[in-house]
Design brief:
By secondary structure, the chain is mainly α. The chain has one domain (10-78). 40% of the residues lie in helices and 8% in strands. The chain contains 1 helix and 2 strands; from the N terminus they run ββα. The chain has one helix at residues 45-75; strands at residues 33-35, 42-44. β1 (33-35) and β2 (42-44) form a beta hairpin.
């Protein structure tokens, strides 16, 4: 079986959709607020993780579906 492609998901500000760049020396956890350098709004860590998880599942699901469609198509080739 072919390996799935790797991918990254950027955390985006919930208010202005800019890519969030947090303090790289700090470890964020549940309940933390991450300030957007673009608009200044505070983003809830848990909400950002939920959105990134959903996006990741969508990407993986799409890759798996494409893989199985190709597999089935190849099985029934003449």
């Amino acid at each position: 079986m072919k390996e799935l492609e790797s991918f990254t998901i950027d955390s985006k500000c919930l208010f202005c959709d800019a890519t969030l760049i947090g303090d790289t020396t700090k470890k964020y956890s549940s309940g933390d607020l991450i300030k957007c350098m673009n608009c200044g709004e505070n983003n809830d860590y848990d909400s950002l993780i939920d959105i990134a998880s959903t996006e990741g599942l969508e990407v993986v699901s799409k890759q798996v579906n494409e893989h199985f469609e190709k597999l089935v198509k190849d099985m029934f080739k003449d």
